[in-house]
Write a structure and sequence with these properties.
Shape: globular
Helix content: 25-40%
Strand content: 15-25%
Radius of gyration: 25 Å
Structural class: alpha/beta
Bound molecules: ligand MGD, molybdenum atom
Largest sheet: 6 strands, mixed
Strand order of the largest sheet: 5-4-17-16-15-6
């Protein structure tokens, strides 16, 4: 490496901060105090030396001329995005005074709401000083449900935790099923492992309503109706049990509830499952046999299929498959949704939840629109009078986003936004505070797709007057007169606290190992086959086909098909008006709403688009390239029609979460999504969304 470096240049090890299972290890070249190159670490077994389309442009984003580099004070009307630059001193004084006044008001401290998600996945910049600050001032807590909680609950109820087959063992798999995941877009570093499995003879299948770029590369695309995956898994189990393809020994030793499951799957014969899923019965039978005869099938589910009313049950049901067939026995066999629960960073030490007053309410972030617009906060307790947003862009990404922006324009709401850019959310702020990017601050990372922890060392000094989130909360706390010792820790101390737990899996993840190598594998056996000998993390210690906990929650304790809220058969009048099921999964070039303003990526993504099947387009007289309005009772947005065979009839696809202000009509796909929630975990149902589409005349 050093041989190719210019004189005086250095290379600093880092971590990709983005909300992606791959959590890459990066190498940043620094010349004259400027970051000039970003690369993937070749030595890192999952990164393998390459970065994705987006992170290859991370420096373009960091040095973007539109970066917010000073505090900004609002001067125009709420939501107008009109600001003047201000000093940190002015900003902190004004915000401290206002937050202290709200704390002391009749509404009390719980009328202050923090709102954050995974703009950075870093434990420091995402869940350390910020949490301590809000706990100490007695603010409401936030239930961070916007992405993954439905699926997490599905896994927890079945195998006990967000733990699954190890992606590094996929080469040992004899069948790969990419189920509700667009691997090449949202988990691209898994792909080389999939190719290895294929080279070893494993067929690779993709189950998705859309023929994504991933499906294109697979041996087969199985086109499924959105929200019906549980029915497919039940149909597969029906055939597996009927034909004796199950692993009786594994079932007897390591599962509970197999009788209830066997009885349940009788209700899902292939003909009925074909009706629900739209997949031909013969294909369901063949898939079941293929799966049942395999010995170590790797099923990669991801979060796409859990963004429906029955999302948790769908994940739970699929997660039963490898216990029925005993695929967990072998490395590479099993289901993977997430690997995050293998990591045991010392979050209690970082969060200090003990500092939060007992009885503090929790607000579900997926209900932000209601929380801001309904007088009783829509969630019980005092109205939200102040909101501090960081690591998130809710004005764009939240379901029902027009409600959110309506709430953000309330004259009596005080809104502070910590950001890199003037996003849709920042435009609604009273104060925008300039935050550092990953190149400029410390952090430490877990992964939800592999088993490596990563340290991020700052490569360059903060640009302009930007500060790390941690430092902003330290300074704001001091300005508000808080002097608790937990607010004094510096960032390196926080890293050390993050790795200070006693869990043996973390024995290899220390300040020393991370600062020397940049990353470290968890102290887990290799090959890692977590449930080869049972050892499930459920209360029974078994894979729970029958879940007592779900019975207690009033839910069906046995896997079943829970239809989407907007399942046409159940809502025929709505479906007559709005016959298309709209999926709005990630654009290849963006990370949720991040990178939408980065020129090269925006040009590649073109503009807000809507893909339709040719017959659906023809029925509506929509031509390729026409401007269309996508609409339901919640709202509407405009997009450019793209007509393609590679989409299921009756399904429409709007890729990516565009910044509303970069769309021709100032709104995006979340004008149509609803604030309804998933069956478990209180998650949003972004893809459970019926719409109609017409050409703009
Ligand atoms: N490039 C890029 N990468 C990303 C992201 C990004 O925005 N851009 N986002 C990141 C984040 S935050 C997350 S959570 C992950 C999400 O990544 P994934 O879990 O892969 O999820 P999605 O892309 O939401 O959906 C994946 C696929 O599910 C399909 N799908 C939708 N509904 C259903 C269904 O009911 N059944 C089935 N079988 N398939 C369905 C969609 O058509 C889509 O192709 O990706 C991360 N990676
Ligand atoms: N319709 C539809 N809506 C969706 C989805 C979908 O598939 N369809 N996906 C959903 C999913 S899976 C998710 S996870 C959410 C994601 O939604 P968000 O978590 O809001 O993610 P982003 O849109 O990437 O916005 C993150 C923001 O954080 C900022 N940021 C990054 N790093 C830092 C930092 O260090 N400090 C500060 N202060 N700010 C920082 C970035 O500049 C960016 O504006 O969106 C959800 N919304
Ligand atoms: Mo997500």
């Amino acid at each position: 490496m050093s041989a190719t470096l210019a004189p005086g240049a250095t290379v600093v090890r880092g971590s990709c901060p983005l909300d992606c299972p791959d959590c890459c290890a990066t190498l940043i070249t620094v010349e004259d105090g400027k970051a000039t190159r970003i690369q993937g670490d070749k030595a890192h077994p999952f990164t393998q030396g390459f970065l994705c389309t987006k992170v290859n442009r991370y420096l373009e984003r960091t040095y973007h001329p539109d970066r917010v580099l000073t505090p900004l004070r609002r001067v125009g009307p709420k939501g107008s995005g009109q600001f003047v630059e201000a000093s940190w001193d002015e900003a902190l004084a004004a915000i401290a005074e206002k937050l202290n006044a709200i704390r002391a008001s009749k509404h009390g401290p719980q009328s202050i709401l923090p709102y954050s998600y995974a703009g950075t996945m870093g434990l420091l910049q995402g869940e350390s000083m910020d949490r301590r600050f809000f706990h100490l001032i007695g603010a409401s807590k936030l239930d961070r449900t916007i992405c993954a909680t439905a699926g997490m609950m599905g896994m927890r109820m079945t195998v006990g935790a967000s733990i699954g087959a190890d992606a590094e063992e996929v080469r040992n798999s004899d069948l790969v099923i990419l189920w509700g995941t667009n691997t090449l877009t949202s988990n691209p570093h898994l792909w080389p492992h999939v190719l290895e499995a294929r080279a070893n003879g494993a067929p690779v299948l993709c189950i998705d309503p859309i023929r994504t770029r991933t499906a294109e590369q697979c041996d087969e695309w199985i086109s499924i109706r959105p929200g019906t995956d549980a029915a497919l898994a039940l149909g597969m189990m029906h055939v597996i049990f009927a034909e004796g393809l199950q692993d009786d020994e594994y079932i007897a030793q390591h599962t509970v509830g197999s009788e209830a499951l066997c009885t349940r799957v009788l209700e899902y014969p292939p003909a009925k499952v074909a009706q629900i899923t739209g997949i031909p019965a013969e294909r369901i039978v063949a898939l079941a046999r293929q799966y049942g005869r395999a010995k170590s099938a790797f099923v990669r589910i991801n979060y796409g299929l859990q963004r429906h009313g029955g999302g948790a049950m769908a994940v739970r049901t699929i997660a039963c498959l490898p216990a029925v067939t005993g695929h967990w026995r072998r490395p590479g066999g099993g289901v993977q949704l997430s690997s995050s629960a293998n990591f045991a960073f010392n979050r209690p030490a970082l969060h200090r939840e003990d500092l939060s007053p007992p009885g503090t309410r929790t607000v579900n972030m997926s209900l932000l629109g209601d929380a801001l617009t309904k007088p009783d906060a829509g969630v019980g307790g005092p109205p939200v009078m102040a909101m501090v947003v960081y690591n998130s862009n809710p004005a764009a990404i939240a379901p029902d986003h027009l409600k959110v922006t309506e709430g953000m324009r309330r004259e009596d709401l005080f809104l502070v936004v910590l950001e890199h850019f003037r996003t849709d959310t920042a435009d609604h702020a009273d104060w925008v505070l300039p935050a550092t990017t990953q190149v400029e601050h410390w952090d430490v990372h877990f992964s939800y797709g592999h088993l490596y922890a990563t340290l991020n060392t700052p490569a360059v000094a903060p640009l302009g007057q930007a500060l790390p989130n941690t430092e902003i909360f330290r300074r704001l706390a001091a300005r508000m007169g808080l002097d608790h010792p937990a607010l004094q820790d510096d960032d390196v101390t926080l890293v050390k606290q993050a790795v200070s737990g006693k869990d043996p899996r973390m024995a290899t993840v220390t300040w020393e190992s991370l600062s020397e190598h940049g990353w470290a594998r968890l102290n887990l056996p290799r090959p890692f086959a977590p449930f080869a000998n049972g050892g499930f993390l459920t209360p029974s210690g078994k894979c729970e086909f029958y879940s007592e906990r779900m019975a207690q929650m009033g839910l069906d304790p046995v896997p079943t098909f829970t239809p989407p809220h907007e399942f046409p058969e159940n809502v025929p009048e709505l479906a007559a008006k709005y016959p298309l099921a709209l999926v709005s999964s990630p654009a290849h070039q963006f990370m949720n709403s991040s990178f939408v303003n980065v020129g090269s990526l925006q040009r590649a993504a073109r503009e807000p688009e809507l893909a339709l099947h040719p017959r659906d387009a023809e029925k509506r007289g929509i031509a390729e390239g026409a401007m269309v309005v996508v609409q339901n009772d919640r709202g509407h947005f405009k997009a450019r029609a793209r007509i393609r065979e590679g989409i299921r009839e009756g399904v429409a696809w709007a890729p990516g979460v565009w910044w509303a202000k970069l769309s021709s009509d100032g709104r995006n796909v979340n004008a149509t999504t609803s604030q309804r929630l998933t069956d478990m975990g209180g998650g949003p149902v972004f893809y459970d969304n019926l719409v109609e589409v017409r050409s703009v005349s």
